[in-house]
Hints:
Elements: H1 7-21, E1 26-28, E2 36-40, E3 48-52, H2 59-80, E4 87-91, E5 106-110, H3 114-117, H4 140-166, H5 173-190, H6 193-198, H7 202-206, H8 212-215, H9 223-244, H10 246-266, H11 275-291, H12 293-296, H13 299-317, H14 323-340, H15 348-371
Parallel strand pairs: 3-4, 4-5
Antiparallel strand pairs: 1-2, 2-3
Amino acid sequence: MSTLANKKDEIIMRLVHYFVTEENYQPIIVNGVKNEIWLENLDAPYKVIRINSNYIHNDDQFKFDNFKIKNITKQIRKKTFSFNLKTLNILLDLNEDVKVTNNKSIDNFKVDSLKDVRKDDGLAGLFPKLKTMTLSTGDEFETMINLTTDISEKNLKDNEEYEKIFKPKKIIVTNALVVINVIMFFASFMYPKMFEYLVLDPSLVKYGEYYRLFTSMFLHGNIIHLASNMYALYILGNQIESFLGKYKFLIIYFFSGMTASLLSCLASFSSLGASGAIFGLLGALLYFGYNFRLYFGNVILRQIIPVVLFNLLIGFTFSGINNLAHIGGLIGGLFITMGLGVSSKNEKQGRVNGYIGSVVYALFLMYLVFIAK
């Protein structure tokens, strides 16, 4: 006697098992739907997969079903900061008279049996591994238990990875940088000549005093300048160091500071301060937040981007603020973070593109500063 309610249940379980364990999809909780399973993988060609076991009996109901998908994916798109969400809609109970058509955002597939799944003109044409998917050969209760166990183990592994990334960690590098900046601030007022020797002077940098690209990051003009930068460094640094680790944080900080200084030199701005490197941390947070936008929800849209835009606006509004350094650091932070990668999202091609972008960006700025007339 079959222990499964019907064959649709087995198809659903096997498809969910495959997409979760083999294609790294994760379930989405969608309120107000019944007999539907929604899965997402924002790095896959089909970012959303929907498995629908509801009966669709005519063309009008099919069109309404696609209309409903578009409304739901519109909500997901806003939440995940995605411009396009190509959806795969798998229909398990469709009247044979219904004409199945696709549109720009939705590919519809009718599935009547597991054998249909394995056909080249079916889902296996999109996901070749489905061709070798094992069909039922024994006890269906044992099959169900095994499939459920595999899915649970995969979800547990993903949860452990996320917990490893987001759990609080001991912050060392950020605190050390804050302390060094404070020490340098008081030392520079005790020994004013430090400004002369360490500040970012474009003319002297062009004549070989390259160290100023970095030393200027540790000088501040007054206590308000120091306090505002150190507060931002402490807040952002704690997050980036915790999310990405100490070594990546250091690389991001100094690379961003260097590109901020180079862009300042290009405009012949003498400057000082850690704000260029801090904007690099904002760039890193943008990239990290984009990769974990399902976890962050609307934070990237409602908090991170507005903070970036607000600070750039202040730089354009008030005189005496080196906004070129901010822009240079922000871009540098984005590129180098892409190259360094983030845990569980380390796609080789993305990292290669990030490193190439970082090198090209830095070399281009160096060429404009040191070579171009």
